[in-house]
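Private note to self, pasted from the team thread so I don't lose it. Backbone tokens:
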């Protein structure tokens, strides 16, 4: 069997050259096909007239006229407030922003008047709609023509009607009112605080009365406790003074000391200057002194004047304050003894161990 010669098969360079030729041929064929279809295709369809009847007509002949637009002789004209975008009429963004500003102006104008009436009693609750439009026409909308102004007014009226309350008065004039929920944000802070206080005056007054009453009652209780502690403290001081005076009078070193003490002198000696203005304080101390059998109270002429004197009658006794101090000292001694005993026991255990 004969084998084909090596020159029968294409070389590597010839094979790549063939591929390039085929690729160029495909690109040329595709381009020619596209151009042929583009040249032979129908031209862009025009718009159907707005009054065109589609019932018995072929829709392939023309494009239906879009919403918010007018079509005549194949041309599209968008209505006022809309602009053309491809085959549609979309809302103009500038018109939308202008309408939004107008509605905001109406809200601010009407709500500020209502808030001023609520806070200060001046201003109108119902604002005539035409007055606001006249102010807008003379200030901000004087550069618009009549058709643009009417269209913008119609769009704004729709938004105002949704936001504000509207009525027609007996004279046939349309009036606007700000809702309560919206008017609150236009009131000054001081006005809102005053109205809140008026609405909650009963709760606030009762709460303040309870707080003041609680403070007064607490103050009275504190003063009563302080008064009782001070009476007991003065009584203990009287007992200590009289007892020490009695001991001193019986001592050989102080033979000139009298066993009695003038009550008025002792009072002025123990009381603070501000406490001398309160006669009730010392009268309570005198009641405790009269009930104490250890203290004798009797009148005595001192330097030609009649005085009331106190005298300690019990020898070797201890007053309440000294008894308390003695008991506290005994407790401390007992604790120290117990602690030293426990330390000694622990020491002995360690030695024994």
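Design output:
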């Amino acid at each position: 069997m004969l084998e084909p010669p090596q020159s029968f098969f294409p070389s590597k360079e010839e094979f790549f050259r063939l591929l390039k030729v085929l690729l160029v041929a495909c690109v040329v064929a595709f381009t020619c096909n596209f151009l042929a279809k583009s040249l032979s295709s129908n031209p862009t369809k025009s718009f159907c007239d707005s009054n065109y009847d589609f019932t018995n007509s072929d829709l392939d002949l023309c494009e239906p006229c879009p919403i918010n637009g007018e079509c005549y002789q194949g041309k599209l004209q968008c209505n006022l407030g809309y602009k053309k975008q491809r085959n549609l009429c979309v809302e103009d963004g500038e018109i939308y922003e202008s309408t939004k500003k107008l509605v905001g102006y109406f809200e601010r104008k009407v709500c500020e008047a209502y808030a001023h009436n609520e806070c200060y009693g001046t201003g109108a609750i119902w604002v005539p709609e035409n007055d606001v439009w006249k102010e807008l026409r003379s200030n901000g909308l004087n550069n618009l023509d009549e058709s643009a102004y009417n269209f913008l007014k119609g769009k704004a009226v729709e938004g105002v009607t949704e936001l504000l309350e509207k009525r027609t008065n007996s004279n046939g004039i349309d009036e606007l009112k700000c809702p309560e929920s919206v008017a609150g944000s236009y009131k000054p802070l001081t006005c809102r605080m005053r109205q809140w206080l008026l609405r909650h005056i009963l709760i606030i007054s009762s709460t303040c009365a309870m707080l003041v009453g609680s403070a007064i009652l607490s103050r009275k209780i504190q003063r009563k406790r302080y008064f009782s502690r001070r009476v007991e403290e003065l009584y203990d001081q009287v007992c200590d003074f009289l007892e020490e005076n009695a001991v001193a009078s019986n001592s050989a070193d102080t033979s000139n000391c009298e066993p009695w003490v003038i009550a008025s002198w002792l009072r002025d000696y123990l009381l603070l200057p501000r406490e001398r203005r309160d006669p009730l304080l010392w009268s309570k101390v005198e009641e405790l002194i009269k009930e104490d059998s250890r203290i004798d109270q009797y009148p005595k002429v001192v330097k030609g004047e009649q005085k009331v004197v106190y005298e300690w009658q019990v020898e070797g006794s201890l007053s309440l304050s000294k008894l308390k101090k003695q008991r506290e000292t005994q407790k401390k001694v007992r604790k120290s003894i117990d602690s030293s005993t426990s330390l000694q026991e622990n020491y002995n255990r360690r030695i024994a161990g």
